[in-house]
Structure formats: structure tokens, C-alpha cells
Specification:
By secondary structure, this protein is mainly alpha-helical. The chain has two domains: about 35 residues; about 100 residues, no CATH class. Helix content is about 40%, strand content about 5%. It has a two-stranded antiparallel sheet with strand order 1-2. Strand 1 and strand 2 form a beta hairpin. The longest helix has about 30 residues.
């Protein structure tokens, strides 16, 4: 067998292996995005506390309204800025800050499901810059964040 033929065979094998790896990663990624968590959800109990509610309001005003509100103020009813489109550049798609009020997509989730989402986010690379505020009508807000672990932020 000529050296040229061996090189072509080796390159063919590498391309085939990369294609198989890409297919495996695509299936795994699809499973991560669209998969179902089989572990049972544990019930959550939130301690009502007026201090936590005010703290949650303050953190939402400081860090959430920029993306999840039209005018930079509460409620977090959804933003109008497409984060995937820069003026003068082609749009790469659509990504808007979603409605985070109980009338939005959060209404579809139970407390335990929200807890599972927050647990997943807390293990991601985004956690150090994240503040999750869970609020419901006539109930105190719950603040879940690395900021609530002893790091002091300015008072409201």
C-alpha cells in the first residue's frame, strides 16, 4: 500500500471518529436540554420573613430589572431587548429576558421544580453572578444567591 493511500485511510478514520463523537455529543446535549429528571421532588418549605422580602426586592431592582423589565423597574414582566441582535449587525436569533412574575412562565412550575432549577443553576459557571428571587402574591420573597451567604451589599 502506498504512503498516500495510508494517509488517506488515516484521515478517513479520523473524520469518521470525529463524526461519531459529534453524534454522541449531539444526542447527549439533546438529552440534557430535553431530558426528564426521574428523581422524586421533595416538598419545599419557605420561612416567611419580611427582611428577606425587602432584600429580594432590593436585589431584583439592582440586578434583574435590566434584562427582565421593559423600563428598568419592577415587576419583572419581561424585557424587550433582543440580546442576540446588535444594531448594525445581522441578528443571530432572538433572546429576550422572560417574564418572571407569577403570571409568566414561573406559574408552570411547582416550588419543588423551581428548587431543582435553582439547584442546577447553583452548580453552573453562572452562579457567582446570579441572584434568584422567588416571589408570589401575598407572600414573602425568597432570595437564593451566593450574595446571601455573608457578602454584604448596600442596603435598600
Amino acid at each position: 500500500m502506498s504512503p498516500f493511500r495510508r494517509i488517506v485511510q488515516a484521515l478517513g478514520f479520523v473524520v469518521l471518529a470525529l463524526g461519531a463523537l459529534l453524534a454522541v455529543l449531539a444526542v447527549h446535549g439533546y438529552g440534557l436540554v430535553h431530558g426528564h429528571e426521574d428523581r422524586p421532588l421533595l416538598p419545599l418549605r419557605v420561612r416567611p420573613d419580611a427582611t428577606l422580602r425587602e432584600r429580594g426586592r432590593h436585589l431584583a431592582e439592582v440586578s434583574c430589572v435590566g434584562c427582565h423589565s421593559e423600563d428598568g423597574s419592577l415587576p419583572l414582566a419581561g424585557g424587550m431587548t433582543n440580546f442576540l441582535h446588535e444594531p448594525g449587525a445581522p441578528a443571530l436569533g432572538e433572546l429576550f429576558g422572560p417574564n418572571l412574575t407569577p403570571g409568566g412562565r414561573i406559574a408552570r412550575y411547582s416550588d419543588a421544580e423551581l428548587g431543582r432549577i435553582i439547584a442546577a443553576v447553583s452548580k453552573s459557571r453562572f452562579w457567582p453572578r446570579t441572584a434568584v428571587i422567588v416571589a408570589a402574591p401575598n407572600a414573602p420573597a425568597l432570595v437564593i444567591s451566593p450574595f446571601s451567604r455573608g457578602v454584604r451589599l448596600p442596603s435598600p
